[in-house]
Amino acid sequence: MTFWCHLVDRHGKDGRLHTIRDDWPGYSLDLFTYPEHYTSDLDCVLIPHGVIMDRTERMARNILDGLGNQDLVVLCVLKGGYQFCSDLVEHIKQLSKNSDTSLPMRVDFVRLKSYLNDQSTPDLHVVGGADLSVLTGKNVLIVEAVVSTGKTLQAALELAEGFRPHGIRVAGLLVKRVPDSLGYRPDYVGFEIPNRFVVGYALDYNEYFRDLSHICAISESGKQKYRI
Ligand SMILES: O=P(O)(O)OC[C@H]1O[C@H](OP(=O)(O)OP(=O)(O)O)[C@H](O)[C@@H]1O
Ligand code: HPA
């Protein structure tokens, strides 16, 4: 089996990093629209929705270029990955429709949960039954919204490997620069971001903020308000 997700590989399959620096203050919230119920829960917009969409389209292009016309099973890591996966799959579909290659693609899901408040916990659950026999012998693209410590990605990789796929690649929209990283770097990375807790575009803080379109940095008062 080919194992494409390298430990401590600084560059993914799509080359250069797309780094948001630690001193980037983000965009003022006033520049964009966002749900009024989150006023004062957010510090700034780190990545506006339109930029996420444009970057996702380019990631789809890079993924397609690396595939040839092999069948693909997309494995979405829920819940945080649902929006990115949906947009990525849509872009892959559109791009393959507009090219000569016809790509048979299936989509499956696994739910992995470990966060409480803004902290990773050792309690990593696979929620629900995960019969992923569809992965056997196939090329698999694991789609994850954010890689922070990398524990969730490691668990997803182990789970997928158990079904003996032909090969695995990983697309991660965000990779966070954290001191406690296991060192996993997806083959396809959207943005490398500072070590701040981000919400929106399906990323949550205790299930809040999934209904926010932009990727934003949560404020301290937002953390306090929704803390469990
Ligand atoms: O790299 P890690 O430190 O493991 O963190 C990344 C994971 O954390 C979040 O999941 P969470 O446990 O919050 O579950 P959710 O996706 O259902 O919100 C996020 O959606 C990633 O899957
Ligand atoms: O910044 C984050 N936001 C949401 N979920 C996460 N899981 C790890 N880091 C994050």
Automatic annotation (TrEMBL):
The keyword Amino-acid biosynthesis does not apply. Belongs to the purine/pyrimidine phosphoribosyltransferase family. Pfam families: Pribosyltran. The gene is PRTFDC1. The lineage of its organism: Eukaryota, Metazoa, Chordata, Craniata, Vertebrata. Pathway: Purine metabolism; IMP biosynthesis via salvage pathway; IMP from hypoxanthine: step 1/1. GO terms for cellular component: cytosol. Its EC number is 2.4.2.8. Its cofactor is Mg(2+). This is Hypoxanthine phosphoribosyltransferase. Its main location: cytoplasm. GO terms for molecular function: hypoxanthine phosphoribosyltransferase activity; magnesium ion binding; nucleotide binding. It is found in: Cytoplasm. It comes from Denticeps clupeoides (denticle herring). Residues 53-205 form the Phosphoribosyltransferase domain. It catalyses: IMP + diphosphate = hypoxanthine + 5-phospho-alpha-D-ribose 1-diphosphate.
